[in-house]
Amino acid sequence: MLKNLILLILMAVMMSGCVGMYCKAPVSKDTIVLLPKADGTTGKILVTEGASQVLLDSPYASARSGDAGLELVIENPADLDKKFASALAAMPPASKSYLLYFETGTDEFNEASKASVGLLLDEMRQRPHPEITVIGHTDTVGSHDDNDVLSLKRAGYVKGLLIKLGIAPEQISVAGRGERELLVPTEDGVDEQKNRRVEVNVR
Amino acid sequence: MNNLKLYGSLVSIILMSCTSFSVYAESVGQFKSVNGTVTIERSGKRLQAAAGTTVEAADIVITDTNSSAGITFRDNSRLSLGANSHFSINQYRFDQTTHEGRFDSTLKKGTLSMISGKLSKQSPDAITVSTPSTILAVRGTEFLVSAGE
User: Fold this and answer.
1) Which chain A residues contact residue B78 at CB under 8 A?
2) Chain B closest CA to A130's CA: distance in Å?
3) What ipTM goes with this model?
């Protein structure tokens, strides 16, 4: 009799998949895990499944979609390795940017920028299939539209210099950000040498 | 009758322009690493991916058992796929000047790791990833997704 009762309980447990707080994972589910960035902070992910929504906004916060809709849990980082190791290992390295400045009134890089160009070439040698984006930036002197044109022109000029240094043209794209991304924030119409730069981004 | 002819030629003009549009394809990213067997489905054709292969805006990337791939995109978003994954790009647009655009993709099965780039810095809802049962709105971050178990 007691034996039968234990059997019955065991069967019930197996069917529900739950022992105390431990529940067996549902058969099919999607999992979304928010990771901390290199600086420890996180962004946010809003996960939607039908009418139910979960906002992930802390490290290792995870949304699991199962039979009962979305479930919010905090993952143990060690458990993630098992499932995601091969994806994580294939992640390409972060891009790197180098800032180039010209000697005032000339087409020559200043001394610090010549050194940066050396570092850039080293970085390219270390990467498989490196690509470069040359991005021109201006200060806030002149109109917004003129600065778009000017920044693209400067980027194009630097592209020419990089080609002379032996980088293949098809590895280089150019962009002009105009006055949208000031390194030193200023009012409109301010002559700021630090903002008149060309950024070379390697990925 | 004349109207029908006109209609017919209009349809063929539209069809022709559609064809030429699908031939035109822009590179939106590049494979930086490929391990094992990774296949691209592009306009009904299958190609083997290798490190250095370019990625186009409507590509489907499929990884085999014991295979993985790492891709960088024009906005510096980075993505990697684990084994047995099926990933499709539904839409990718990125304006280098304004940083506006969209990146919508679907992970049908397998595992994905992603670090969002300039697109989501410019507009918080520019990047989405769909799985068989969910949709993610990505607001500037790093994350993992597994789909279908």
Assistant:
1) 91-92, 94
2) 8
3) 0.82
Chain A residues with CB under 8 Å of B55 CB are none
Residue type at A51 in one-letter notation = A
Q: How close, in Å, is residue B74 to chain A by CA atoms?
A: 9
CB distance A101 to A197 below 8 Å: yes
Cα–Cα dist B68/B47, whole Å:
16
C-alpha distances out from residue A70 to A32, A129, B144, Å: 10, 40, 16
Contacts of A83 in chain B (CB under 8 A): 82, 111, 146
Tokens linked to B149: 């178990």
User: Residue A172, SS3?
Assistant: strand
Measured at the CA of A34, the angle between CA A32 and CA A38, to 5 degrees, comes to 145
Provide the pLDDT confidence category of residue B23 given band limits of 50, 70 and 90. Answer: very low
Nearest to A45 among B69, B96, B138 (CB): B138
Residues contacting residue A10 through CB under 8 Å, at least 6 positions apart: none
| Interval A134-164: pLDDT, tens | 999 999 999 999 999 999 999 999 999 999 9
Between chain A and chain B, how many beta carbons pairs sit less than 8 Å apart?
158
A90 and B35 within 8 Å at the Cβ level: the answer is: yes
**β-pair type (B101-115, B127-130):** parallel
